[in-house]
Specification:
The chain is of the alpha+beta class and about 325 residues long. It contains 6 helices and 11 strands. Helix content is about 30%, strand content about 20%.
């Protein structure tokens, strides 16, 4: 087979010519058929709602960046305003005025301070410490002696007064012919920690009866004056003592020498509990019983004392008080 014959039929190729002759009868010699024309319709129109949605979407896409920018601007303004206000507060901090007690006149060393010698003045907060006397504590320094001279206008300080923790002496609180004796105390044995200097208390002792070996509780002493709770006396300036040091584990009592002996022995033999009196109640019960296990279990003494309590103690209702009702009566 000649290659040239396949491309431009140049030359002669018997095999190809024979094949063409055999296939020539199969050739289509008619005109090409015409295909029917296809009509192209215009695209269907979108519904009116779709057009509106498309238009609104386009508008929103155009305004979204503006809305975001506006929101960011508002947030930036709020943050800036907060920063400015905080800076102003920091600048003013420490310069807020606080009222303190100051000397209204020159006070010489050793002078007993009276209300006429002090007044109030507002000073910046940053210059006020816990050592400065505040107006609500002015009564603590009145009738107290100053240890150093104070000039008019000077703030009054707790350290300027004689009634400090270090300057106090308990012996000055003990009356002549009396004695001070100290017992251990807890919140349970000291009325929940409510016993304070100058209070009046009764002393209750709990022991083992040596004859019967049963537990006994008896009131040893009545109307005993409390001199101190821990290191705090009735004239102690509590503002000079940290709050965590105001709790106490001991109570000092003022008794006569013979009573001091009783208290010392009772402390060795058993435990002591204080019961708190009203400051105006100074009566002493002459006949006193004692509580034992038998009196507790029988209930006879309890019933008698209950009746006595109803007849003695008033029931406090609101701002007034009424006698306790007698059991069994309306």
């Amino acid at each position: 087979m000649s290659d040239d014959y396949l491309w431009d039929k140049a030359g002669s190729d018997p095999d190809v010519e024979k094949l063409e002759a055999e296939l020539g009868g199969l050739a289509y010699d008619r005109p090409a058929p015409k295909l029917p024309a296809v009509e192209r319709s215009a695209p269907a129109a979108l519904p009116r709602r779709a057009h509106a949605m498309a238009r609104d979407y386009g508008v929103l896409r155009g305004r979204a960046p503006l809305a975001v920018a506006g929101l960011l601007g508002v947030l930036a303004a709020v943050v800036a305003y907060s920063a400015v206000m905080k800076q102003q507060a920091d600048v003013r901090k420490g310069w807020n005025l606080v009222t303190v007690v100051v000397a209204s006149q020159d006070i010489a060393e050793g002078t007993v301070v009276s209300f006429d010698m002090v007044s109030q003045r507002a000073v910046p907060e940053q210059f006020v410490t816990s050592s400065v006397v505040k107006p609500d504590s002015a009564s603590y320094i009145v009738n107290q002696k100053v240890l150093v001279p104070v000039q008019a206008g000077d703030p009054m300080l707790w350290s300027q007064f004689e009634t400090t923790k270090a300057a106090e002496r308990l012996s000055t609180k003990v009356q002549k012919s009396a004695r001070a004796i100290t017992i251990e105390a807890s919140k349970t044995t000291a009325v929940g920690g409510w016993v304070r200097p100058s209070d009046h208390v009764d002393i209750i002792g709990s022991f083992k009866d040596p004859q019967t070996n049963e537990s006994v509780a008896v009131t040893l002493m009545q109307n005993v004056i409390v001199l101190a709770t821990g290191k705090i006396t009735g004239t102690t300036n509590v503002n000079l003592i940290p709050e965590n040091q105001r709790d106490y584990t001991t109570v000092s009592l003022m008794v006569i020498p013979e009573e001091a002996e009783i208290v010392a022995l009772a402390t060795e033999l058993g435990s002591l509990t204080l019961s708190l009196r009203n400051e105006d109640d100074v009566d002493v019960i002459e006949e006193r019983g004692r509580a034992t296990i038998n009196t507790l279990l029988s209930g006879e003494r309890t019933r008698v004392l209950q009746q006595k309590r109803f007849n003695t103690i008033q029931v406090i209702r609101g701002s007034g008080s009424t006698p306790s009702p007698t059991p069994g009566k309306p």
